[in-house]
Every structure is written in C-alpha cells, then in structure tokens.
Amino acid sequence: MTTVLAIETSCDETAVAIVKNRQVCSSIIASQIPVHQQYGGVVPEVASRQHLEIINQAIAQAFDESAMNWGQIDGITATCAPGLVGALLVGLTAAKTLAMVHEKPFLGVHHLEGHIYATYLAQPNLDPPFLSLLVSGGHTSLIYVKDCGNYETLGETRDDAAGEAFDKVSRLLKLGYPGGPVIDKLAQTGDPQAFVLPEGRISLPGGGYHPYDGSFSGLKTAVLRLVQQLEKDGGQLPVADIAASFQETIAKALTKRAIACARDYGLNTIAVGGGVAANSGLRKHLQAAAAENNLQVLFPPLKFCTDNAAMIGCAAADHLSRGHTSSLTLGVHSRLPLTQVMQLY
C-alpha cells in the first residue's frame, strides 16, 4: 500500500495528512476563518503568513496522530494548482524540502483532482467512470472522471462559483463570512418558495440553453435588487426567507444540470466534492432526484468537503502507485485546467 505525506495550503486552511491508499491515518486542518472574518473574505498575504506560522506544527501533529515515522512514508505531496500563489508556495516549498531531506519521491497535485478523490476516502470501492460535481468557493464544474488523471469538463459556471455566490449574498444580507454555513443554517427557518429567483441559464447562439453550463452572477444581482426593493418598501427584511429561496435556487439548478449530464453520458454515479457539497439543500435535492432517476449520488464526509490534505494524499497515492512523480523544479499555478493535470508529472 502506498503511504503519502500530504500538504494542502491553496487558500485559508493549513492542512497536513498521512494517507495510505484510501485510508486516512491522520488529518490535521488548521482553519484561518477567524483571522479573515474581520476582512469579510480571504486576504492572500495574511493567508500566506498564517501558513508559514502553522505548517511545521501541523506536520509534527500529523505524525503524532498517525504514530508513524519517516521510514513508513513512500512519497511527499503538496497542492500546486490552482490557488493563491503565495499560499501554494508555502506548502510546495515545505514538501519539496522534506522530499530532498528524506530522499522521497515528490508529487504536485491539482486541487480539483483532490476534491474528486475526497469521495474515495469514504467509498474505497468506487472506481471510474463516474460524474463529478465539483462545487466550491472558486469552482463549479461537471467533470467526466474517466481514470486517474484523465478528465473531461462537461459543464461549468461562466462567472461566479456557487460558493462565491453564497459568500456574496451573505455579505449582502450582513450575515458574515463564510457565507455557506450561515445561509444553510438560516435557510432551515425560512420559506424556500417565498421568492422566485433566476437559475442563471446560458443561451446558445442557435437558440435554446446550454444543458450543463450555468451562471450565478445574475442570481446574486437578483437578490441585491430584491433586498433593495424590500428595503424601499419598508418593514423588516425577511432574511431567512431570502436565504432559503436563494439556497433553493442554487440547489435546484445544480441538481438539474448534474442529473441531465449523468443521464446523457450514461453515467450511473455522481460524486459530489467541494465545500458546497456540505450544503443540506443540495444534498436533499440531489439525493431525491438521483433516486427518481435510478442514479447513485455520493458525498464525502463533511470533514472532507472543505479543503483538506487527506484528499490530496489520496490522489497522490494513486498517482505514485502508477509511477507518476513530479520534478523538484515544479512551480505553482494560480490557474490550471483539470484537463492538463498530467503535465504535473
């Protein structure tokens, strides 16, 4: 079994894990949310400095939790793309240094590939092909997973990602950062049918709409105009109803496209990854729709929906078992299509 030490520092979580194939031996996640809340979002320079302060302690904790030593590690990996450049450099530099000092193979892992592999951590018997719905703060995509490193993007958002829309609407409603968890909680007390909001369809040049692509920028603007009109009319703003209606719209839009995509491509399994995979509205709608269409839908455990190093380690272990390694000259990329993942090896 391939055992990997993994580091994830692409944004605002400093995460380290030791993974043996699809088994998590240890997983340390130090969130920076309290640090960034005062700014209403992630400040890249602050994130990088926080990673520098925490990374060594997180590595030590990962070894303590797993009761393992360097002799049991087969390879060392870190997220190298996409993400905040300064933040990525912290993790990548640490991984390269450890690989040289301990004479271990080094691998750079694509962050989105990690989110795909998050489902493997709870589903050890899952194998391609399947459809991956990646929904996070920076990405919303439908990915045809054909094999390790072999992916085809079938649909994506043309502007805001789903998680980004949650954060922006949360800021608009003065609910704070991050927006996903607070809107989800508030939506439980609101009426999801209170307001009709646009799903954000993409028109095609020859007429009709793109079956899998979407847009959340217009939805965000619609909420803004709704709030402005309600405030103009006076009275107390029905924040819970707005949150519930907004969440319902996103969940239905994502579900509709994912189900259509899976059916059109003859894929029986939909694996969901990314922070928005923890959203209760999306889980409810997607599970119900999948059951109606005789499809299987899989969600990672909640602790592996948001950024973590265990998913990065799981992806790296699969690559390493196939003989894939990265050069120590590998750099970081703020953007890199998932379809180009094999360029890292």
Which helices and strands occur, and which strands form pairs?
Layout: E1 3-8, E2 13-20, E3 23-31, H1 33-36, H2 44-66, E4 75-81, H3 85-101, E5 106-110, H4 111-118, E6 130-135, E7 140-147, E8 150-156, H5 162-172, H6 179-187, H7 217-233, H8 239-264, E9 269-273, H9 280-292, E10 296-298, H10 309-321
Parallel strand pairs: 1-4, 4-5, 6-9, 9-10
Antiparallel strand pairs: 1-2, 2-3, 6-7, 7-8
Query: Order of SSEs, N→C?
Result: EEEHHEHEHEEEHHHHEHEH
Mean pLDDT: 96
Number of strands: 10
CA-CA gap between termini: 20 Å
* Gyration radius, in Å: 20 Å
Helix content: 40-55%
- The dominant shape is globular
How much strand?
A: 15-25%
Structural class: alpha/beta
Q: Within the largest sheet, what's the order of strands?
A: 3-2-1-4-5
Main sheet makeup: 5 strands, mixed
Number of helices: 10
* Uncertain stretches of 5 or more adjacent residues: none
